[in-house]
Design brief:
About 5% of the residues have low confidence. This protein is an all-beta fold and 294 residues long. The chain is elongated. The chain is built from no helices and 28 strands. Strands 23, 24, 25, 27 and 28 form a five-stranded antiparallel β-sheet that branches.
Amino acid sequence: MDWDQDGFNDLITGAGDGQVHFFRRELDGSLHEMPVLFSYGDTLDLGNWAAPEVFDWNEDGLPDLLAGAGSGWLWLYMNVGSPGLPELAEGIPVQCGGYPIDQNFACPAMADLDGDGLEDLLIGIYTGEVLWFRNEGAPGSPLFYTYTELQSCGSSIDFFNWAKPDYADWNNDGSLDIIGGVYTGESILVYLAEGTGISDPSEPSQYGEIILNILGVPAISGFTVEVILPEAGEVDLVLYSIDGRVVSADHSHEMSAGRNTVSFITGELPSGVYLLHCEWMGYRACRSVTVLGL
């Protein structure tokens, strides 16, 4: 992370007193502690347990700052300076569904978890779980409506306490994996991404000969799937949670050539984004489905 854009990776870290510290990388590779970061002409002070993440929020080429704290909202500080001379504006709360994100001991990270070209928001929380806020905005304008807990092997990812997630392609398989340290400092946990739950085309999918559309979304009690085939055959439809768990798999149908429709009942599904996977004669397609739980 090159905070001052001089070509060298620097270090930004939060402190227990709520301030954010900047350590500049020197030519010899050493780190030199600089004055704490300022916002709107005053010391940036989050109250306690500052947890910063550097990210170019509006894609203007300048590094901005996301920061959580021990209590209260997740804050965004836009960089209104110039290359090499960062200057942070007054903080504004990051929102989800029109309301400020309010998570105690929130530790943010930004990563394109579903592979749609938009950076999503990950937040580690004090109970050890990691929340995933899917970016449904546009490049340079992140927008969040819902969130879900990331899961592994059928249960929530758990770093035990005060999760600080990060990401990397740990095993070089082309998928982003989740990495985080345990609060006690005894170990680092790595959760490897597997399965189908990270592919989400933004337009109707057409892989091979399948055309797959979702009708009636956002779904409140159910939705309709439109499958268009060039010839008759058996079609398998499986609904996944966005983290790869199967939530509905009882949809194998013999379909005719042309347009076919299938109804899905969402029932007790919680609000969130799901992925519908379709397979026919070796061809596959995937579409996102937004569910608004009752």
